[in-house]
């Protein structure tokens, strides 16, 4: 069993663990298992031990929040000496001259960056496969690990690393976290450096415990106070298991997870009652337009001829939307007014994270655009609207399917600035209903 990030950091700070040995053991686990899991696009097998030695020699070692902790970073992150591929063979492959904000904050906190995790091309899809590999769900490798932070989720759920960085544009942290039985937090859009897609994409943590998620969030946001998980006062929780606007059927076990969580939170003193926001029909257009136009804007630096055919179609659609001027702030504002109305009467909304079970693992990048769109929209009915609103949301594991053995989860959403509240509620669920930290292990 892999120690938690908090445990590793505390032992390194106390002098009981050597960061180099921790890193070598991590690389050994990756070498042994990643041929099946497919979590990594690039493993930093030579660089990471050298950087761990640098951490061990730091004079401020005793104060580093992530002292010696091996962390996987999503392949959208600028790391000195590496290039971020964004899951594509069409982009530039020139190594970065210096760390970007995310890598710099991780290093400053004492983390050891052990590798770049697999993502779908331009991070568009909730399944993370590329021509050289498929990120698979460690609970059952015949299923996809999700996306676009699927490689990060697979790495953590398989016990290869205790923590991973991800980014979330329409659910890209929360969906793979739900599929792989992890805590995955999408912060509010005002907390971390913007990740793109016209403000919809943000960076965040994937972890096996709430405390580890809070720890990584505090480092990514450069706000140490976020590492402290509070015990929340009683709050008003609205509950909904109906897919917004589409009303498509949700599998019974995913609905049952919400009922289970509602009972646990009510027992902790919170008020839980069924009620959903009034979702405006224009919300779907606002999300879809940004989902297409964001990658199209990013693709200006890529050679379109080398894109996968699904990506070429997606980029063409995005360019048409951009030319038509359909990225409209008023669409977002209309949804925000409805969200503010809801959260005037509720402190938290609870839903399933997934609106359907994960898809099977496979070479989705070889299929047509529509063959990817249909299962993608089927999975993500509860997540993307909170990217459009910029509200924080967290995925929390609840149980496992009696049929497939795959994890079940809930999503908790709150108003801007409420990340600590979400972590506190997640910690109450964790205490009342402990989950297996990694696949197949207690």
TrEMBL record:
SUPFAM superfamilies: Amidase signature (AS) enzymes (SSF75304). Residues 22-423 form the Amidase domain. One of its GO terms (molecular function) is catalytic activity. Belongs to the amidase family. This is Amidase. It comes from Amycolatopsis australiensis.
